[in-house]
Predict the structure.
Amino acid sequence: MFKKIVLAAVGIVILSAAVILIVLSTIESPIDPVAYEAPEKPEMTGALEPNDLLQKAELLAQGKVNSPEEVAVDKNGRIYFGTPEGKISRLLPDGVIETFTTTGGRPLGMKFDPKGNLIVADAGKGLLSVDPKGSIMILATSADGVPFKCTDALDVAKDGTIYFTDASDKFPLKDYLFDMLEARPHGRFMRYDPATGTVTVLLRGLNFANGVALSQNEDFVLVNETYKYRIHRFWLTGRKAGTSDIFIENLPGFPDNISSNGKGKFWLALFTVRNDMLDTLHKYPKIKSLLSKLPASLWSKSKRYGFVAALDERGNITETLQDPSGRNLFDITSAQEYDGYLYLGSLHADRIGKLKIGE
């Protein structure tokens, strides 16, 4: 009797799976995936050796903020960050949180320009400039006639030139996981000239163009390619000016934002560590197509892991700051050095990290 019950249960499971597959086959896929052969991930040894240094970080405004993806600190020590509701808020030194301005989109990357304006990459609204009183000016919403779908990250040169990314010109921010599964290069890296108001595309064909950071002498600028686990270097001066190469590749996690401390060090935020299942899945476009038809809530979740890497200007990882437990900090999407501290933002957390760092 028990055997018959087990066989019946197995039969029901198989039948249910078959029905689900049949139903999924009739639904049009939101993606057009291709196969991608991910490099074998590096061993977590040497500078990558797991540590718990991020567990020492102070947690600012815990439980009072929502998804502060990137932070910027002004000369008065006020911490600015965007929210999913389309606000740019700021955390004051006394712990008070106030609304600085409202974009109506989703503010992501932000940096102050030489004039004190907050330059913002808003995923929904484009490249923006916000003056000290909170008034917003739209700088750009497209390049070469192609609208931005996910304006993401930026850095500002000493002369006010803005280098920024459109992570994907096909998928908006809410569908960033579709962009990952599709594995097609929809990202662009661009330059905005404040004197002429023109946008120039510097690099095309990036698999989710993300963080941007200028070198100490502004002779090159970095741009992260999140879904290829690598960072590109675009040369601005010298005999290589106008060309690009790979700064570092086969990273141990997903590179998100990157910043320069202005002294020859880059701080790279890694959203999480590499996922063996995802790297294997990338080989099979048909399976990815089926998966994309399921609710995202049914997809495998990324590992909660806090991860920041320091790089020198030659592309070497010199140290890492980690929280393997993900209890203190996780899903880190930005790391910004200011006055001896590293400020850490996250796409999903309810806190901002603040960690004392050495020279």
About this structure: Residues 299 and 325 are 21 Å apart (CA to CA). The two ends are 72 Å apart (CA to CA). Confidence is low (pLDDT under 50) at residues 2-24.
